[in-house]
Amino acid sequence: MKSTINFNIHVSSLVFILLGLTVNQAQGTASNNLTNCQSVASSFRTTVSGPVANITSTTGTNVTCTSLSGSSCPGSNISGSCVFQHKLSVSCYLSGSTVKIRIQSNGLPYYCPSMPSSDTFAEQNIDFEVNFNPDVSVNSPLQSATTVSALSTLLCNIQGSSNPPSGSAYVNYGSSYSTLAGVSVDGVSIMNVNSLNNVDPFYPAGSFAAESVDTCLAHCQAAGIYHYHMGSGCAKANPSSGPSACASVPTCSSNISNYGISSFSSYTTLTVIGISRDGHVIYGPYTSSGVEVTSGTDICNGMFYDSIGNYAYFATRKFPYITGCYGPGNYPSVSVNCSTNAPSSYTMSSYASALSSSNVTTVSTNATTVSSNTTTTIASNTTRSKALRRESSVFLLLMTLIVIGIGWMD
């Protein structure tokens, strides 16, 4: 009798040790070491190693544009052409045991934008530090909205990107940009998805007109910040002849959302296109298997995209196009009231589903069953564990330890 009790105690202890390992696996740990960060940083079109004291004081790459003049030239007019410099630094480093990434950009692209001569186009001082790819959990969403009203309040708000979450440890060293959501790999700002009217700039609900952009899908706001609201292939590939007005290109003006996705035709795998202000990576429209992301994103347009719990934002055809809030968010069956091109509902990716609390609950139930009694119960639990995690070595390890426990009993 005593040896049986000891056996149950041993098995129970071992199961709960393994349960801790299994729950940790279900929660996921992101790829956020220094090498991971440096790999992402290498995707940026940098002009100087950093960090630097002031990105605007560095020497960048000259861009010569015959199409820009007056206030639309952010540099100097030389022999009838506008000459400005693209300047960008992306640095990764350790702060204690945490990997930080610092983004420093003057906001100017390495191509010649298309814009009216009356527009102001100016150099910026974007400079911030943030934890790189911080750990997050599908079981603990940072944003949750379950009604049309709540979702619209969250996403249809031009100031919705003003405060990165505390877990990102965001520090600003440059000018203040309350509507900045992230920075593209070409140094161009990625702004909050909304127009000044707090509606989708391209497919606005109500009587608002769509905003004008060039064929790189960017434009300037009043302060002269050239920026994206949706993913653009121009960030990856320099348009050889320079962009023109979207309105003058039928494929762009007729369906700008489809046009944006088509601009990634040479990048149909997992492709870094920027960093969000919360430290998460922004990818183009495709997964590592070459599948376009049309579902699996949460309300923030973020997605758990692998089995270890990495979370990132993806360029999509639907509002909010790049990022609408700092996630992870939830998956309601409602839509926003500020766009005619928004999802009607949200569903988890297969990876998010596997990482969700339902799996943790099932494992906990099985562990309780194991600890309660006899060999028959253990065998029953073993069958369920196989079905739950065929890909995991936890089951095999568990059985090995049970055999050891039987040895202890003897």
From TrEMBL:
Q: Which InterPro entries match?
A: YHYH_dom
Q: Does the keyword Membrane apply?
A: yes
Q: What is this protein called?
A: YHYH domain-containing protein
One Pfam family it belongs to: YHYH
* Record-annotated YHYH domain positions: 181-288
Query: Where does the signal sequence lie?
Result: 1-28
Enumerate the transmembrane spans: 392-409
Q: Which domain of life is it from?
A: Eukaryota
Coiled coil ranges (UniProt) are none
Keywords assigned by UniProt? Membrane, Signal, Transmembrane, Transmembrane helix
Q: Which organism is it from?
A: Rotaria socialis
Is Secreted there in the keyword field? no
